[in-house]
Recover the amino acids of this structure.
């Protein structure tokens, strides 16, 4: 088995970094992949997601959810960011595939001080933001790929994703 | 660590099965989660996806892609199916999280006889359907969840997903 990157990967340039920044600043949802503690294989679900003004990659999820319990057993995660619109070929719409480790924000002051920023980007979360089982999770990003359309893939290092 | 399902899971009823069928018949893309062979954690990307008229859960991907190479090392996969539209809260839009094992369709007759059906559902694939590195993958589905909106989650057995 080879782990060399495929030959189709392009060098990350300013155009790619601009697209990355655009995808990150506009994202409000993501697909979250985790390792399923029951089977050891992957599991993927949809989550609320955004990057805070100070650059934190963040979600707010119920502690009782399947993915939250999976992340307690193994904090490694992956994110797919960049939702295709109603028009055009969804496979040409740019998206990010990122590798991350998750960290749970402790309840108390740390939890409370993220509330206002989260509600500004996710106003409908006011329905459940104060439920006692909801926790903020921070994604510590290790790297990944930008797929900017057919045959336009870029490898991203951690530095390509710290755009704030 | 407990692996009990969360208490919020509902019994799968006809309404849920109807929604499952609707999501499966209209799906043209999915998020595919695999185990990253470099790191052992999850990896997630966007793929073309559809269920064929005879009930095959299918994608067409390049053999050179990161996810194809990951599946060679570990054929376990997960799918997120059900794309939110431009309107409404994307987190209330129903979606499926499915566990699967992937099987590569061998080149030759098996590959060729899926071509027409695939192009009917994915007309833009005519640009690359005949590239020599493209392979059909069949997802053998083991089960999963339907999330039909906030607090409306259902556990799905294999039989709930064989709707053809």
């Amino acid at each position: 088995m080879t782990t060399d990157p495929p030959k189709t990967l392009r060098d990350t340039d300013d155009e790619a970094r601009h697209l990355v920044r655009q995808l990150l600043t506009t994202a409000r949802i993501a697909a979250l992949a985790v390792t399923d503690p029951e089977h050891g294989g992957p599991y993927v679900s949809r989550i609320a997601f955004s990057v805070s003004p100070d650059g934190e990659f963040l979600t707010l999820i119920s502690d009782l959810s399947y993915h939250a319990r999976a992340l307690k057993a193994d904090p490694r995660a992956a994110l797919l960011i960049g939702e295709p619109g109603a028009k055009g070929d969804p496979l040409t719409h740019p998206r990010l595939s990122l590798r991350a480790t998750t960290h749970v924000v402790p309840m108390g002051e740390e939890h409370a001080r993220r509330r206002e920023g989260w509600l500004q980007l996710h106003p409908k979360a006011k329905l459940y933001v104060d439920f006692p089982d909801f926790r903020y999770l921070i994604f510590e990003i290790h790297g990944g790929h930008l797929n900017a359309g057919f045959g336009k893939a870029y490898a991203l290092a951690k530095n390509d994703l710290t755009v704030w």
